[in-house]
């Protein structure tokens, strides 16, 4: 499988659209209810961060496959301000907006692989993968 | 020249109407108007074309046009019926005027097109405005209706109130939940409020944060919150997110939550039916002896 679909994040309700598309793709790949909920929640966190901190961006989904298993890759991209405190944001409770600060560390725990690239002033790209067991 | 073109159109209105009706009738068979009765379709067409002619004659928009579009909106006619009809009209009168004219140069041709646009476009704009105005009105009414549904508070019995949440929680709704919760607790004098999240599809950190804040606020005004309806998959994601709900009580189902609410207010559920049953059984067994 090598298709990719994206949802643009511009307004708050786009978060719901991204979540629904991601959940649909996850269901088609064969993820169960609990993993679908984990995936939908991770998408929600990433999409809301784009909406809150970058203004606009997009979330893309890709059904992937390696030798042993299938999986879903979520990529969240934006050209926003980037994250200065990259090491701090991965610690629980760090927030610049008075939030819970559990979003990014939460996504890392909800998913199997997690990778974050961010440059001050240039934007942020986060890749996260969930493997089907 | 303006007046001349107008005279051609008004003077031959019967011919033009006939041509227009033929064209519009041809469209009927296949599309959206197929379900409308022939009679109604024809009378509406006639009225429509009269309205167009009146607006040309009076060189401007008329009340007739407003009345007509208002009626079609109320009857649920599609806007495309009107815009298609206007396009047909544009074509028919352009062709008609050009056929009536002896010598046609490009200046004359441009003048005819400009004049015809001047008749047709204001009518189209007016119709589109009327229609979109009515849509906006509907959307705003629905928004109000949704808002009323979005954070309801049900006082089930003395001192116990339930807020069932169904559907996605966005920032606006989160605010409403907080407001209604605090207002309701005071108004119904609730000691315990059950917040039921069975119908909330995703509980992310934003939703959790709002719920925690709401529960905290309820605590500050002297009441207690119990979070109920936590589905197993939601319980797992909350744990994964590392959110600490330890500070206030949670229950998996509304039924369990209601039971602890009763306990908190020093009450229990008594099963009257089974007691009667017990007594009946007792009498039965006595009789048998
Ligand atoms: N896409 C992004 N662009 C810029 N900054 C971001 C982005 N995502 C997260 N951040 C920063 O990382 C911090 C932590 O994010 P997160 O863990 O989701 O917690 P929260 O959203 O509750 O603050 C945010 O407060 C914000 O400063
Ligand atoms: Mg966040």
TrEMBL record, chain A:
Histidine kinase/HSP90-like ATPase domain residues: 34-133
Signal peptide range in chain numbering: none
Highest taxon listed in the record's lineage: Bacteria
Name of this chain's protein: Anti-sigma regulatory factor
Organism for this UniProt entry: Halobacillus campisalis
Automatic annotation (TrEMBL), chain B:
Residue ranges of coiled coil: none
Domain of life: Bacteria
Keywords: Phosphoprotein
Transmembrane segments: none
InterPro entries: Bact_StressResp_Reg (IPR051932), Globin/Proto (IPR012292), RsbRA_N (IPR014792), STAS_dom (IPR002645), STAS_dom_sf (IPR036513)
SUPFAM superfamilies according to UniProt: SpoIIaa-like
Domain STAS: 150-261
Keyword match Heme: no
Keyword Phosphoprotein: yes
Protein name as it appears in the record: RsbT co-antagonist protein RsbRA
Organism expressing this protein natively: Halobacillus campisalis
